[in-house]
Amino acid sequence: MNRIQGPVNKNPGSKFYFYPTECCEEPKPCKCQEPHQTTFNCANVSGATSIPIINILDSTPVPKTLGTVSIDLECFDKPKVKLSFSALVSFGTAIALGFTLTFRVFKRCGNVPETEIYTFDLFQGVAVAIGSTIPVNFEVCDGDFCGSDCCTYRVSVEGSSLLAAVVGTFNVTNGVLTVLATEHC
């Protein structure tokens, strides 16, 4: 079997080339007025229930993973990624005093260890009745890539309070995690 060496252009007028196992656009100078390559992926956030709100004076909060989503960046030279998260937070118990929900975004690309890239704190300083619902959404722009083929983003949440009287649980439902990547000029 003959193995093809280097890029092959089957259509001389095309700006695309392919290897037997991949298809990418030829590297070229960036021209911002041209349309850029984009890719998209999304994942539903599975229902995370009965997540405790921990008094951090007594113990350490335990993060709960809400969801993960991966994106293939193999054919990008300088990718820019927008990650969006939205969900509903509901409370299984009434909470009379202030607490904080901390959402963390982690990224893992290739064989590099996972790193935290973003933190979003939602402070609730007023009483919350049982069954109350709070919408949560945030977006992260990420452009820190170094020769990565595939990156996976993970979102976790934890509940904490400095007040001994605050204990309770919350649920995260009806959520979605999306990533959109484009070539950055």
From TrEMBL:
The chain crosses the membrane at residues 85-106. This is DUF4489 domain-containing protein. Keywords: Membrane, Transmembrane, Transmembrane helix. InterPro entries: DUF4489.
